[in-house]
UniProtKB/TrEMBL annotation:
SMART domains: PP2C_SIG
Domain PPM-type phosphatase: 187-405
Pfam families to which the protein is assigned, alphabetical: SpoIIE (PF07228)
Keywords: Hydrolase
TM stretches of this protein: none
Listed InterPro entries: Bact_Sigma-Reg (IPR052016), PPM-type-like_dom_sf (IPR036457), PPM-type_phosphatase-like_dom (IPR001932)
Highest classification ranks of the organism: Bacteria, Pseudomonadati, Bacteroidota, Cytophagia, Cytophagales
UniProt name for this protein: PPM-type phosphatase domain-containing protein
Top-rank taxon: Bacteria
């Protein structure tokens, strides 16, 4: 009779275990929320497996997050750092490096959950009584099922977030392409060529060329601090403000002060933009410009075959509520000349030895290729860049714009 009773109890427990297994797998197949899966698992352990107290920690980005805590009187941490968990898989020993205020002493055993060599979860248990025999194999199995389901849910959330991010980046990239001029002039009086390599799908560089009238043309290059969508959005706002100001008859000084004020108001000094703005008057043969902390463009005089850096201006935009100083550069009697504008992604291009291309190499190349057609100049210059850097990828956005006036 005793043997029959033991056999019945064993049969009854297996039946309960199968019922519990069916319930949790059904909830997983129905894609129930994480909270539902955890409640089913908790109910199974407490009712069907004769467990009195339990704690479940699940791995998450370098730490173990507490998901379940029931029947524990002592103080336990909400998070265990990976460095605090020393688990010896071979010997089955676990050591927790915790401060004195935390204690797991009232729990009698633990079950680790592994995927290959990676520890995914820790389950701490205490039986309802000493007479109860824990079915550790079933407990391990059902814990594995739960943790894998939670991991799959986390992976699915990441995939969805990544897909949303990819769509946002693609939209930002399309918007950014609209910022750049769709057609560059290629006439006898003005030829322009731009080479632009964004570091990622969206970059923080901006260039523009605006023919305001038959006599006047504006050109600029800018580089916003940071990368990604935030930098692209800030640059789009900057471009909108610039174009609005250029439609007015505001001077270069007023334009720079207003751009700085708008940028500072939007970012509270946390982001800044380096910027160069030039204005050429064909009738007066006059170049006026302001350099706001940007890499100085190189002006090439066809008469005399000399070059100079266009440095006059002010500091970076957005760092101060009011620009501390502002100087406008001006050159007269310019009729045949070339200007090369670029961002620091060009001069900071690295080779295999960790050397930067640098401003000296750029100026040397420009001096030996004076007043060349911009299309041909870029072809030869970027062959020079390729030969210099070899297989080393660019580490920043790169923009290079050449304008030939004649």
């Amino acid at each position: 009779m005793i043997l029959e009773g033991q056999a019945y109890n064993k049969y009854q427990r297996k039946e309960l275990e199968l019922k519990a297994l069916l319930e949790i797998t059904q909830a997983i197949n129905e894609n129930q929320p994480e909270s539902v899966l955890l409640n089913i698992f908790k109910f199974t352990c407490l009712v069907h497996l004769e467990i009195k107290a339990m704690i479940l920690y699940v791995a998450k980005e370098g730490e173990f997050e507490k998901k379940i805590a029931h029947g524990v009187k002592g103080k336990i941490p909400a998070v265990l750092l990976s460095s605090q968990v020393i688990d010896h898989k071979e010997s089955g020993e676990l050591r927790l490096d915790l401060s004195g205020e935390f204690s797991f002493s009232e729990l009698e055993t633990y079950l680790p959950v592994y995927h290959k060599e990676k520890l995914l979860a820790l389950l701490f248990l205490k039986r309802k009584s000493d007479e109860v025999e824990l079915d550790l194999d079933f407990t391990q199995a059902i814990t594995n099922i739960l943790v894998v389901a939670l991991e799959n849910k986390r992976f699915a959330r990441r995939q969805i977030q990544q897909e949303v991010l990819n769509r946002e980046v693609a939209i930002a990239s399309q918007v950014q392409q609209m910022l750049f001029p769709s057609d560059l002039p290629n006439t006898q009086e003005l030829k322009a060529k731009v080479t632009y390599f964004p570091h990622s799908m969206v970059g923080g560089d901006y260039y523009d060329l605006i023919r305001k009238s038959k006599e006047k043309v504006y050109f600029c290059v800018a580089d916003v601090s940071g990368k990604g969508i935030a930098a692209a959005l800030l640059m789009s706002n900057f471009q909108a403000a610039l174009r609005t100001l250029l439609r007015s008859d505001a001077s270069l000084e007023v334009i720079l002060h207003q751009l700085n004020y708008t940028l500072f108001e939007n970012t509270k000094g946390e982001r800044f933009i380096t910027f160069f703005l030039g204005e050429y008057d064909f009738g007066k043969k006059r170049l006026r410009y302001v350099n706001a902390g940007h890499n100085p463009p190189i002006l090439c005089w066809e008469k005399g075959g000399k070059t100079e850096l266009l440095e006059a201006g002010t500091t970076i935009l957005g760092a101060f509520e009011q620009l501390p100083f502002l100087e406008t550069g001006e050159r007269q009697n310019l009729d045949c000349f070339t200007i090369h504008l670029y961002t620091d992604g060009l001069t900071e291009t690295l080779n295999a030895n960790g050397e930067e291309f640098g401003e000296e190499r750029l100026q040397k190349f420009v001096s030996s290729h004076m007043c060349m057609d911009p299309e041909r100049f870029h072809l030869e210059f970027f062959q020079e860049i390729e030969d210099f850097k070899g297989p080393i990828p660019l580490r920043d956005d790169l923009t290079f714009m050449s304008l030939r006036f004649s």
